[in-house]
Structures are given as C-alpha cells and as structure tokens.
Amino acid sequence: MAPSDITISPVDSKADMSAFIALPNRLFAGHKGYVPPLNMEREEAFSPKKNPLFEHVEARFFLARRGDRVVGRISAQIDSAYLDRYGDRTGHFGCLVAEDDPAIFTALFATAEKWLRDKGMVRATGPFNLSINEEVGLLVMGFDSRSVIMVPYDPPYAGARVEACGYAKIKDVFSYDYDVQNAPETIGAKLMARAGMAGRVKVRTLDTKVFDAEVRTLVNIFNDAWSDNWGYVPFTQREIDHAAKALRPVIVPELAVFVDVDDETVAFIMALTNLNEAIQDFGGRLWPWNLVKLLTRLKVTGVASTRVPLMGVKKKYRNHPLMGAGLAMMAIDRLRSNGKRIGKKTAELGWILEDNKPTNNIIRSVGGVHYKTHRIYEKALG
Asked: Which of 2, 23, 87, 289 pairs with 313 at a CA distance of 20 to 30 A?
C-alpha cells in the first residue's frame, strides 16, 4: 500500500495525461542529459486512438501525488504479441519517473504490480516505454551524455530505487558514440573480397520515390535479423506505417543505406537526425515560433548529431565468418562517408544487447566508443 501521504491514481483525463507528460520536464530541468520531448509527440505515443501499438498492448498509466503535487508516474502494460511468442505470463512496466524518495517508488511499483497480477501476470520486466521496439531500459551509465531521439534519460538515483523495490538486472543494452568525421574506413570491402563476393555487392541509399517499399524492405530485414534476439517482438504492418510517417522528417535518404547481394537486399543501416538537438530549447512546445525554428534547424542550419537505431544483416549471411561482418561494415562505411559529406559530426549506435558479441565487436572495431548503458530489470510477482 502507498504511504499515507502518497496517493496513486490512474490517468483518467486529459489533465492527468498532461501532468503525466509534464513531470519529467519539471524534475529533470537543467540535467545535462535530458531534453524535453515534444508534448504533442508524447500525447500521440500514449494515445490508444493514435498509436497502433495499442492494438496488441493493454496499458494503464498511474500518477503519484503528495497532496496536490505530482511526484511520480509509472505505466503497466501487457503485450499480447509478446505473450503469443513467449507464453511466460510476463507483463511490463515503463514511463517510470519520480522524485528521489523511496516511498514514491514503492507506491508506484506496488500499484503497477497489482494491476499486472490482477491480469494474471507472474513476472514483470522493464522499463519499456511502451515496448521493446520503442524506448528501452533504465539509464545506469552516461548520465551527462548528449540527449538522443528515442533514448530514455533517467537520473543517477533511479537505479538504486528500482532495485530497492525488489528488481534485479536481466539485461544491459549498450549505446556507442561514433565520430562520423574522424572514424577510420573499415575492412568491409576486403572481407567481402576474401569471401569471393567482389563484384556481386552493391551499396546504395534509400530511394525516396519508392519510400514505402524501401521501408518494407528495411523492416523485413530487421524482422529476419533480429528474430533470435532476446525479447524480440515483430513490428506489425500498422506500426511500420505509423513509424514511417512519424519519422519521415528525421529520415535523411543519404543516411539510410542498403546493401544488395546480386539482386537481393540483405543488409541495412539507418541513421535518424537527432531531433533532440533541434528542440533542446523548446521545453516540449512546438508553437508558436518553435515550428519555424525547427524547420530552419532541420533544413537550413543543420543538426550535427544522429542516431542509428536500426541495423541488420539477414541471418543467412550474418553467420558467415566473413560476410556477416563485411556486409555490416560496408553499410557503416557508406553511412560514415555520406554523413561526413553532409556535415554530420556524431552518431549514437544503439541499443545493442550486452551479450551480442558479434555486433559489439563490429562497432568497437570501426571506432564506436561505449558511452551509455541502459538496464532492463525483472521481478517475480508473488
């Protein structure tokens, strides 16, 4: 039960949701690693009417108050696509933000866990905001690193508070800092030549004339390449269409790279313009003049940082001793050269599971520096 001076209530109104969205902006104001996301984007992400994720995810949002003051928030969710794949009666938590007070964390988790138990779940994992294909993990290293699109920020105290509520690490995921201007050329072309593939490999960039088809190709490779990853849940077509529309303003064709072997597209890497750099002084608001500033920064003055959220090589090539690394490196080389040419300075590559040794080794070998760690937790619901 919540301590007597803390009340927990579900988000049941527009005012509640506004308070839910506003809380991290207030608590993390001035934190070097935090940039407020756009309020309108968060409203859409948390709306069952607008976000197709809710076609397979049931979620409940909760607020903690001390008197009239909002002091914490959490979500509890059940993903039927996850349960269909794994059948382990695991629910999830996410959107965790609270003042540095153990009583608030205790009250929030007690409420979220009760909701999950009442739905028949026997285990909770997270944080996922709101799925493994969106924002993942609790930041435990890299608190002062730059804020990057679709990468959660958490204050240094949060990890200890979560663990005090009975949660233990299940996985860490890594993010890497990549110096686009100064990173060395890889040995990707040499590896492909040694594999006897010289002349059969073509590296190209996204064709905007067939944008929807290119997105489908990318997602098909992703679903094949990532299908054995821990916790993997495939994107639905509606989620793909929604994400493509939402992210199109930050997709730069030169930074969406495909690798073809003969006539088959078998690998890709994609970097997104780091929207957080462009909106860092907006306070989450787009109007009235911030829209003009945003368009100017995206189209005229430029944004120097990017994020690589997606990269994949089809499984039939990935496990080859030369071609898996070779194809990935050739994609990275084109991404680097194109990014350097159009003025990009840095890229965040991630997230990567800590035990995905092949991908971690490739990224380190091409100059990536591990600079952030996010932790995924689990707890049995007794």
From this structure: 87
